[in-house]
Amino acid sequence: MLKLFRATAILEGISYLLLFGLTMPLKYWAEIGEPNKVVGYAHGILFIAYIIIAFVFWLLKKWSIKRLFILIIASLLPFATFYVEKKYLRIA
User: Fold this and answer.
1) What pLDDT is attached to residue 90?
2) By C-alpha distance, which of 34, 45, 35 is closest to 12?
3) Which pLDDT value is given to residue 91?
4) Mean pLDDT per 10-residue run, the chain (92 residues)?
5) Would you say 32 and 26 are in contact if contact means Cβ atoms under 8 Å apart?
6) How many domains does the chain have?
7) Model pTM greater than 0.90?
8) How many Cβ atoms from other residues are within 10 Å of residue 33's Cβ?
């Protein structure tokens, strides 16, 4: 379960950065919309998976509500899932 959560956190972070750093500029500046659609769908699936796995992992580990809050907020901020993976998921 830990390997799945770590992989999901990393992939979600990468998809987030790709979405906002590469495909959105392509869509709005170069009028190339297809990459945004593909990466957007992938990011959406990874985001939902990250939230579900974070909640399940929180229940299994019996972590505090503060840690769950950190895990969820991390999914909304660029680079934060990488921080969570390093700080919380390597020692779990």
Assistant:
1) 79
2) 45
3) 65
4) 90 94 94 93 96 93 92 91 86 58
5) yes
6) 1
7) no
8) 14
The residue type at 41: Y
What per-residue confidence (pLDDT) applies to 64?
92
Give the tokens for residue 59: 């229940």
Grouping H, G, I as helix, E, B as strand and the rest as coil, residue 92 is: coil
Selection from 79, 69, 75 nearest residue 43 by Cα: 75
- Phi and psi at 33, nearest 5°, equal -95, -20
Task: From residue 3, give the alpha-carbon distance in Å to each of 10, 21, 62.
Answer: 11, 27, 18
Q: How many residues does the chain have?
A: 92
Tell me the C-alpha distance between 51 and 78, whole Å. 15
